[in-house]
Amino acid sequence: xxxxxxxxxxxxxxxxxxxxxxxxxxxxxxxxxxxxxxxxxxxxxxxxxxxxxxxxxxxxxxxxxxxxxxxxxxxxxxxxxxxxxxxxxxxxxxxxxxxxxxxxxx
Length: 106
Fold this sequence. Notes:
The protein is α+β, with helices and mostly antiparallel strands. The protein has three helices and six strands; from the N terminus they run H-H-E-E-E-E-E-E-H.
């Protein structure tokens, strides 16, 4: 993995939700990007209790997910075994890691 891509992947993870997990069993590194499947853009921020007005509009930041077109996980960036799924990313990582361990370390 190119260092530049790795830095970009880990940049602003609190906004993007991107994270990396490395298995202590198999040594495989898993890159995770939560995908936002078309939720409408919403205004959100802090509600001023006195005026009841929205202040500090954060717009689309800190959503914890990215839009599919902003994904860094692609064949062009050197990734293999790319897939999307519903449910817990950590549960899917555990399932894949156990499958790999069974196939390659019987």
